[in-house]
Amino acid sequence: MATTADTVTMTTGVTDDNPYNLYPANEGLASWDLVVVAVYFCAVICVGIFAMCRASRGTVSGYFLAGRSMTFLPVGASLFVSNIGSEHFIGLAGSGAAGGIGVGAWEFNAILLLQLLGWVFIPVYIACGTYTMPEYLKKRFGGSRLRVYFAFLSLILYIFTKCSVDLYTGGLFIQQSLKWDLYLSILVLILVTAILTITGGLTAVIYTDTLQAFLMVGGALTLMGMSFWKLGGYGELVRTFPQAIPTKLVANQTCGIPPSNAFQMLKEARDNDMPWAGFLFGQTPGSIWYWCSDQVIVQRALAAKSLSHAQGATLMAGFIKILPLFMMVMPGMISRVFYPNEVACADPEECYKICQSYAGCTNIAYPKLVLGVMPIGLRGLMMAVMIAALMSDLDSIFNSASTLFTIDVWKRFRKQATVRELMIVGRVFVLVMTAVAVAWVPVVKEMQGGQVFIYIQEVTNYLAPPVAAIFILGVVWPRINEQGVFWALMVALLTGVTRLVLVFIWPGAQKCGDVDDRPAIIKDFQYMYFAMLLFWMTVIVAAIVSYCTEAPEEKRLIRTTFWTRHDNRDREEVIMESKSGMHFDDISKATTNSMETGLDNPGLEKGESNSTLDSDKQKPVFTVSAESVNRYNPGNTSDEVEWESRPWYSKACDWLIGIHQSPGESQRQQEQQCRLLKITSLKQSRAAKIGLNIGLVFILSLGVALYCFWSYWQYVP
Fold first, then answer.
1. pTM of the prediction?
2. Mean pLDDT of 293-310
3. Which UniProt keywords apply (predicted)?
4. 512 in any annotated domain
């Protein structure tokens, strides 16, 4: 053992230069790999063009909710892919390399919370006719301040925990594999993503997500299989991971040494990384915010053609969420075994030479594994997988953020905005988001130290648990009112932002050997337990203020809680809102007054018709009047005359972004409105309900069993 003043050089682990017969990881991608990437790009662009031509993009529901025409297969794939971005490939693998399988707990948590979305929240969102989550808050509680608060909070979280991290992790993979200029590569990816999102809307996003879901899972499973094969199986991983120690360590420090409980998922309650009590009672509220009230996720589920398809999609996505532990976390651990001196580097100066970060290089675990394990051609496949992950996440962010801004912010200042104006604003905001994302690249590059995935969770847990509390209370507790919710959010926001600022002021030890000089209130108060405090603080304040003030108006509870989702009374204020200005488009009224509840509204009229929507004698029968459809239809006669008189280049521009359809589209749009009345119902067939409930029981049992298995079972090879 040779010792210097600051470092210790020692012989550990495997001494053979290449005992696992790996490919040279520093060569990057070959020409054939780039051909595979190019083929992938062509395929995605073709899918986007197909969706652009097929999609109904001239209405708000068509652009933002894919016309609510998707089956469970593309919606389930989109739910998975919208969550699995480049930060998962880089972050999960990096955290796995640093600390073991504990980070996989977030993936198992999603298995359960996706079903909470499908069986509790989605029925309420559909019943009350919700486009965005802030819109639900306005329907449930009234007023505008909650809606604006949530919209701005979501946009802030998108920037700090989604755009920034996506750009860093995607850029890191490009830097490791292609050796291209980081900023040029990211700029090209963002522009392609923005073009797909602008031209196709959510339909293009979901179609490309479906393609990318198969690509991601297939490529990641291929890498997982090859990695385990080269290593010698799971038993060999258990044996060699504790020995994956770099040769150069910092004196008197444990940096670079794997934790002894690396193969235990949920650990002791006082553990600083994955305390079981903190995760179950603190992290879960933050995860509920993401899976049940985040615009990116809920927007996908709302695109389903019926409640049954939405629930089928959450079941499908839940089953797929079993895979990341095996195809992302464990490959990261294998990468540490293969490259202990690089992935697990401990000496800050050595780490900076490897990955330009003093904090450590575990984030390069996945790209390093791709380049070292996969042969030429398959490397290109995995590069395409990473591009797919980055593009999927970015297109989800761009589309959902533009939805929030257009409907929840712009409409407040432009109440009489036309469909054309809303469509233009939505597209322009995507471009603005693109510019902001590019501007964030230098900032992201400076934030590369530490574990990316844990950074996301920590920042989210300082802001999101109060929102989760409000949505849970709003859906299940009718007595909660707007005053209680608002003041609870203000108290929790002040508390969370204070903690967040303190964390940035006192970041603690940034590299191995630094002294952790943080105050005890920060150092010893783990962020998951702080999230638990925020959640219950919000619940208590909301309950106290609500009971000290007047109960919410009865009309606010109609179809906005789980217990009143089948309420057949009319929501008068919705009609008033629609009369004050176009309430987004006919689908909003159709969803707000769903066929199943049989309600009267300006878009429906009583009467007998061959197109009967409900045969129940106890409920009125409605048909869609042509007058009510044409009232908000952008394809009316005067518009058609104007369309014909415009120059060709103006028509082409409008067609590209979906503002105006050709004159023959009017009839098809009217037929679409009739169909939407049927598919926004909560009605389910008996067979579908039984089958879905059986699937629900099975997947919930499986999720609990997986937690217990990986938290208490100790494998002995």
1. 0.77
2. 86
3. Cell membrane, Glycoprotein, Ion transport, Membrane, Phosphoprotein, Sodium, Sodium transport, Symport, Transmembrane, Transmembrane helix, Transport
4. yes
Residues in the chain: 717
Identify whether 197 is part of a domain. Answer: yes
Q: Are residues 322 and 414 in the same domain?
A: yes
Which pLDDT belongs to residue 593? 38
What range does the domain containing 621 cover? 572-684
Exposure on the CB side of residue 399, measured as CA atoms within 13 A:
35
Please tell me the distance from the alpha carbon of residue 467 to that of residue 183, in angstroms, as a whole number: 35
**Rg of the chain's alpha carbons, rounded to an integer?**
26
Could you tell me if 626 and 609 are in contact, meaning their C-beta atoms sit under 8 angstroms apart? no
Query: Are 250 and 515 in contact, with CB atoms under 8 Å apart?
Result: no
Quickly list H helices, 100-163. 105-116, 122-128, 133-141, 145-157
Partner residues linked to 70 by β-bridges: 304
Q: Where are the beta strands (DSSP E) in 30-145?
A: none
- DSSP letter string, 603-669: TEEES--SS-S---TTS--EEE-HHHHHHH-TT-HHHHHHHHHS-HHHHHHHHHHTS---TTHHHHH
Measured CA to CA, the distance from residue 710 to residue 717 in angstroms comes to: 15
Q: 542 with 613, same domain?
A: no
Instruction: Report yes or no: 27 and 371 within 8 Å, Cβ to Cβ.
Output: yes
Bridge partner list, 250: 7
Cα separation of 302 and 366, whole Å? 33
H or E element: which one contains 3?
A: strand 2-3
CA–CA gap between residue 423 and residue 400 (Å, rounded)? 14
Q: What is the pLDDT of residue 623?
A: 36
Which range (140-144, 390-394, 682-686) has the least confidence? 390-394
Q: What is the pLDDT of residues 462-496, one digit of tens each?
A: 999 999 999 999 999 999 999 999 999 999 999 99
Smallest Cα–Cα separation from 426: which of 445, 407, 450, 453?
407
Q: Which residue has the tokens 């993009």?
A: 57
Cα–Cα nearest to 113, from 79, 85, 89, 90? 79
> How many structural domains are present in the chain?
2
User: Do residues 60 and 151 both lie within one domain?
Assistant: yes
CATH of the domain at 540: 1.20.1730.10
- Using the structure block, give the residue that is written with the tokens 């990468």: 335
Give which of 352, 373, 324, 357 is closest to 90, Cα–Cα: 324
Query: Do 515 and 585 reside in the same domain of the chain?
Result: no
Same structural domain, 487 and 621:
no
Q: Check: CB of residue 97 under 8 Å from CB of residue 104.
A: no
d(CA 574, CA 295): 22
Does 487 lie in the same domain as 588? Answer: no
Q: Are 657 and 647 in contact (CB under 8 A)?
A: no
Q: How far apart are CA 239 and CA 510, in angstroms?
A: 30
- Residue 256: which region, alpha, beta or left (left: phi > 0; alpha: psi -120 to 50)? left
- Cα(393)–Cα(169) distance, integer angstroms: 12
The enclosing H or E element of 250 equals strand 248-250
- The closest of 422, 535, 393, 489 to 131, measured between CA atoms, is 422
Examine the domain organization and report whether 643 and 509 are in the same domain: no
**In this structure, are 578 and 544 located in the same domain?**
no
